[in-house]
């Protein structure tokens, strides 16, 4: 018969012992002095604080932050409002409205169809990156930017004004 | 002469009051920074250079909070509580000798507000009144948690006062005086100690003559100031906030501030009674070469260095030792510290008779 009490799944099991305290343990003082030595060591040790607005923690190369809608090499928006990102999104955070490109707007939108409204609800978004994987046009990406805090719920619904890459930011 | 005396004492009281307030103010800041450092953090450093304006920001915050008074039949007592706690915390500093004589414009002033011959008794008396501030505040809050905190505070402080007083008696047997000034003066100079032909010179501080009394007094001082590991009266995890649960705004500020003032004063008493006060090695040499004023000023600075060390020690212990359980607290006070203090008195008496002192 198996002794179920001795099973340790993590291998870190320690049996609780209720043995009588020795004299030096009853005195408490040696223990307190030892503990104070430990805290004093921490007092002089290197601090782990990252002073956020001044210094930023280094991101992992696969970090997924705020979304961005990319432009192509001519500065036209890549998104064609196919809706695959909205379909892929497990949190249902993405909504969009498509529109047809008018003649003379070729420099603004790459294909004949584009997203006139593109909104991501940042309160719903779980930053999983499935939209980025679903996109066939390489239009949506998750950047290393931490999305800002806001005072109202409406402020967390990011429209195209916040999502589309600014022309001056574009690096070719 | 009479008016000069009044002016001298008035100035000393005002300066001591100011310094006490300033140190208590910056103790709150030091506590937060030290807490950070002990936990591998940095602590508050945003307000002003290195966070030095943080206490001011805290003060402004305290003052602008709503001054809430709960539904209680004892509104006067509710207001009296924090006031009493603060008053008694500040009263003790009157008998503390901050230094020797200072001669300014031909007038010699002693750096002590009142050199009364029962100073130690006065300190213990004022400390006992300090219980009333907490007790009245907790009672008038009309709240179970506050009352429990107040009951805990009063029983804890009364229990530890016994061991504290008894540990002090052994020191008084050695010093032969209740005056703080004379206790400090007695610790001037060195004890020559001959050990197998090797000559040692110890500072004649009472901590070397009465180590056990020092240990008991130190532990009791922690309990009297309601600091961790004896902070059962406020005990956030069990009693919400203990006796100051219902307090807000500057009334709460007074309670919290009184704790820091108490910490400063008890550090001063420990430094003076056990660590020689304003005495330091090479004092006579400074007196003969640089004069009496330099000796006094260095002595006062040395005293403050000792006080700051003990304030640091208070905070160091706070972030090391977890809170005692209530029965452990009572066991320690009545069954360990009190018998030890009595034993210490007996041993001191035997040694004093044997050496014919």
Largest sheet of chain A: 3 strands, antiparallel
- Percentage of β-strand residues of chain A: 5-15%
The CATH architecture of one domain in chain A: 2-Layer Sandwich
Overall mean pLDDT of chain A: 86
Number of strand elements of chain A: 5
Biggest interface between protein chains, with counts per chain? A-B, 14 and 14 residues
CATH topology of one domain in chain A: Alpha-Beta Plaits
Quaternary form: heterodimer
The percent range for helix content of chain B is: 55-70%
Q: Structural class given helices, strands, pairing of chain A?
A: alpha+beta
- Rounded to the nearest angstrom, the radius of gyration of chain B is 21 Å
Assign the structural class of chain B, choosing from mainly alpha, mainly beta, alpha/beta, alpha+beta, or little secondary structure: mainly alpha
Tell me the series of helices and strands of chain A, N- to C-terminal.
HHEHEEHEEH
Which percent bin holds the helix content of chain A? 10-25%
Main-sheet strand order of chain A equals: 2-3-5
Q: Helical segment tally of chain A?
A: 5
N-to-C CA distance of chain B: 40 Å
Describe this structure as you would to a colleague.
- The complex is a heterodimer of chains A (about 170) and B (about 350).
- Chain A is an alpha+beta fold and about 170 residues long.
- Chain A has a domain at about 65-170: Alpha-Beta Plaits (2-Layer Sandwich).
- Chain A has five helices and five strands.
- Chain A starts with about 20 loop residues before the first helix and ends in a 9-residue tail after the last helix.
- Chain B is mainly α.
- Chain B has one domain.
- Chain B is about 65% helix and about 5% strand.
- Chain B is built from 13 helices and four strands.
- Chain B has helices at about 1-40, 55-65, 75-90, 120-140, 145-175, 180-185, 205-210, 210-225, 235-240, 250-275, 285-290, 290-320, 325-355, and strands at about 100-105, 105-110, 190-195, 200-205.
- In chain B, strand 3 (about 190-195) and strand 4 (about 200-205) form a beta hairpin.
- The longest helix of chain B is centred in the N-terminal third of the chain and has 37 residues, at about 1-40.
- The interface of A and B includes residues 32, 38, 46 and 48 of A.
